[in-house]
Amino acid sequence: MEIMESIRAAIKELILPDLDRIREESKEIKAILNITNKRLDDGNLHLVDQSRRIDETNRRIDALQEALTGRIDAVREDLTGRIDETNRRLDRLYEVIVRREEHVSLTERVIHLERDLAEIKQKLAA
Question: How far is CA 63 from the centre of its chain?
């Protein structure tokens, strides 16, 4: 039995310290794992909060885009109306300018005709 006792004593000397060390390391690993899980949970909560804020910002951007599109359309319609009015006014101005040119041409013809008439009158009077 002494051999059994000495084998037991040897096993206790060799294996039990390693087993105790393994148990301690296991406790440390579990503690580290719990801390890591807590940090992951905090990170996930932060990501959820960031996602919510991004969604809210996207909604605000969409609303702003709709408002800007409406304003751009209104400005486009206003500018189109103004351009059309300016084109009508330019068309009228063109008509007036053409009439003036015709008026100048007619005035020159009248002056020429009056000169010719005056010459004819002089010839008849002589």
Answer: 12
